[in-house]
Amino acid sequence: MNIESINNKYFTIMSLEQTISKEIMAAMKAKDAVRLAALRNIKKYVIEAKTASAGIDELADADVVKIISKLAKQGADSAAIYTQQNRADLAEEEMAQVRVMQEFLPRPLTAEELAEAVKTIIADLGATSMKDMGRVMGEASKRLAGKADGKDISAKVRELLA
Known about the structure:
Blueprint: H1 3-10, H2 16-30, H3 33-52, H4 61-84, H5 88-102, H6 111-125, H7 133-143, H8 150-161
């Protein structure tokens, strides 16, 4: 009997969606308004994604990570706009929610890790030139979802294929 079978037998492994639901309850009990707002926003988009795809009871963790990543990026962009408009109060509120969302995202890749991951993808696909950019980007976007920004991935793919 290996460790994974022991863990599965004795522990219930929660999906990311279940974890977020549990965290919503904890935030309500703690009366943490910022955390509660961020988690409810995530939950709203998860429910919308499940509703859009008929017959899905629970989203895969990778899909939930994509949703959270997108929301965190939008929040950071909004905070930047608020800062430009001298609305530090609104910017801080957005960034507080972004920090909550980032707790549920995988650790971002360093520049070196991103380069290595893209090199591996290029090798796996047998890509040799810029003609293969679309295939490489499609695969890289899937494999690196939530771990690296799309612009950074695109820049690294261009650099390595050029």
